[in-house]
Amino acid sequence: MNKDKRVQSKPAQKEAIKRNKFRKYVPSILLFLLFEIVAVTLWLVKKNLFYLLNFSYIGGCLGLGTALFTAGKQYARHFIQLAVGSYMLLYLGVISHENMQIEGFWYYLFLGVFEAATIHYAVAKIFGPLFFGRGWCGYACWTAMVLDFLPYKQPQQPRKEKLGFLRYVMFVLSLALVSGLMLIKIAKLEQIMFWLFIVGNVLYYILGIGLAFVLKDNRAFCKYLCPVTVFLKPMSYFSFLRVHCDESKCIHCDKCLRVCPMNVEVNKESRKRKNGTECILCYECTKACPTKALH
User: Fold this and answer.
1) Which of 1 and 45 is assigned the larger pLDDT?
2) How many angstroms separate the CA atoms of 220 and 160, rounded?
3) What is the pLDDT of residues 149-205, one digit of tens each?
4) How far is CA 160 from the centre of its chain?
5) How far apart are CA 132 and CA 239, in angstroms?
6) Average of per-residue pLDDT across 76-96
7) Torsions phi, psi for 203 (to 5 deg)
């Protein structure tokens, strides 16, 4: 009788294993479906097939990449960064002449045009962070795409909190630049915006790489200079996706703190934890945690 029970339980065990494997990939499927909803909605509203193809591609890359991440592939996050970041930088920016930087957002916003950069910012950087926090920074940013290949993946020095005000200076300067150009009604502004995109990206890479080596921190640019973080931070506080900490399991070994590229106090569960809105969902902390207190 006991032998029969064991034999009968094997198919049930296999079925349970299959269900558990499938459940692991549900977030990836939901992420793809979320972008597909955006893709179809914009396609129907704007009557432009580009939006269907654009957001389907990005959603597909994110869904596949996060599935690879769930499967434990070390290259998963870099795959998403390169697939999405290079597409936005090279195809949308360089080939299609769309300024996808913050200056492009101000430009299209002032024109009253809900296209290109305004849609991108609304989805990825203003309202999107309510769902996925600073996931843009960890998985799609074309500046961080390059910076993350530099040698200082783990910050070698304490975070220089006082330098954080520089991001607000950059934010105001970008707003003032575009406002000024539009107020004086400069000729060929569309062409100027394209060259601002090219020059701006070159400047970001120079500053980002330089800061990384000076401060021995790949993400120094993100922490101190990136003006986009001004948009990202408020909504990220309420993000649905976040790293959780079971403080009852934490042994305070600080391994998670040492590997976090953004100096987030991940060994605290509270949303008020230090640098909590800076988390880029790289999950390096969860890999380092010896007691699986982080998830």
Assistant:
1) 45
2) 9
3) 999 999 988 899 899 999 999 999 999 999 999 999 888 899 999 999 999 999 999
4) 22
5) 6
6) 94
7) -65, -45
Please give the mean pLDDT across all residues of the chain: 90
DSSP string for residues in 49-78: HHHHHHHHHHHHHHHHHHHHHHTT-TTHHH
Long-range Cβ contacts of 273-279 (<8 Å, 24+ apart) = 275/159, 276/236, 276/237, 277/133, 277/134, 277/232, 277/233, 277/234, 277/236, 277/237, 278/134, 278/223, 278/233, 278/236, 279/133, 279/134, 279/236, 279/242, 279/243
Q: Is the dihedral of CA 155, 156, 160, 163 positive or negative?
A: negative
- H or E segment to which residue 35 belongs: helix 26-46
pLDDT digits (tens, 9 = 90+) for 89-134: 999 999 999 999 999 999 999 998 887 789 889 988 999 899 889 9
Q: Which two tokens stand for residue 65?
A: 């990449």
Burial (0-12, 13-18, 19+ Cβ within 10 Å), 183: exposed
